[in-house]
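debug: dumping io for the single-chain case to check the tokenizer round-trip. Nothing else runs in this session.
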Amino acid sequence: MHLKRKKLRLRGTQSATFLIILILLVALPGYLAWENRVQWDVTQNKSNSLSPASLEVLKQMEGPLLGSVYISSQDAQLGNVSKIIRDFLTPYQHAKPDFAVTFIDPSEHPDVAREAGVEGNGEMLVEYNGRVERLTTFNEHTLVNLLMRLMRTGSRPVVTLSGHGERRLDGIGNRDLGEFGQQLTAKGFRIQPLNLLTTPEVPAETSLLVIASPQADLSEGEVDRILAYIERGGNLLWLLDQQPLHGLQPLAEKLELTLTPGVVIDPQAGQLKAPVTFSVGATYGEHPITRNFDYLTVFPFARQITINENDAWHSLSLVEAGENGWVETGDLNAGIAFDAMYDVAGPVSIAAVLSRTVNDQEQRVAVIGSGYFLANAYLGYGRNLDFGVNLVNWLAGDEDLIAIQPRTTIDNSLTLKEPALTIIAWGFLIVMPLIFLGSGMTIWWRRKRR
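debug: decoded output
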């Protein structure tokens, strides 16, 4: 009899313990879900989480960021638009807690919208350090560009040499750099042409002078004005092709560079189903431009750039290509083959960066042996765009904004309708706990009847 009572007490204790554990198992996930928000992005390219570029830009922004979204609550086609925008901005607010966003319905507050200069429904004003930018298209790329524009202090004029058939940063031709120019403008740079035949000197406020593959000879006076700009510490981006230098040999001498004639032949390009006259950039020098840059770039019809030993400049080979290739000095139409007597064996440098201190400020120069790599026809090859933006950011003294651009979305959205969401909610919150509870009660009842 005593043994039976002891057995019953043990079963009662076990049942009570099981019931307590079951209640905790049911209640604890609900409590944790209420108090904490944890999510995993399982999309193919992490399209539902912020890219490293976005996180880096937000990290660099010191002080509060204010957003005012002028949007009506409902849209005939999209439904609750304000919720869509709120969900889009939430990851940014998590990454930057002092990013405050206010939603204003223009139909209910027309005076406020009019005073803010809002012209349409679905516009966002973002304010940072007293500067305001407008956003009308809500995606990661446009918002990051907006944040970068807000972070740039003062004017950032990028002056491009013109008058000699250069590649134009506002041009639409295949050889022009118009698409790249649009990217620079979106990031806060101001692009303006410069004709040194009609202008006595490169403007003093120039952030960066771009010389992009002239097709005609420069006059001695123009070259002298460029050299004077370099002498006083101006920053320079020089894009070269395999053609002659058109009077700019003194500039190469000033920079202590030897520009070997001929085109780099890269067999690795052939393995990637590209012409062997396209140099594949895969080996980069240690530099802020290429920090954490582990991507391929493509430099069509590149030429070799050799850095001469000197004490005037701190020089670095930025990109090497053609490890198993060579510099072809012969006629490309006559057949491509390595000739040890005339050709230069790879690997070869096809891009160089130089710096020095002038008037207590760092002067920065980049010489790229392919003007094609930023051209409209080739900008989409590899990560040419990222490399080019990083290059200009460093030259303009904005290396804090160097980052890989936000990726494009390649995943399809999974949208669940209200009935499906209701079924899932009932299944996890009601049905499954009842199953656990029923199982526990069944086990307890069977044990009690023994």
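debug: round-trip ok. Confidence is low (pLDDT under 50) at residues 407-412.
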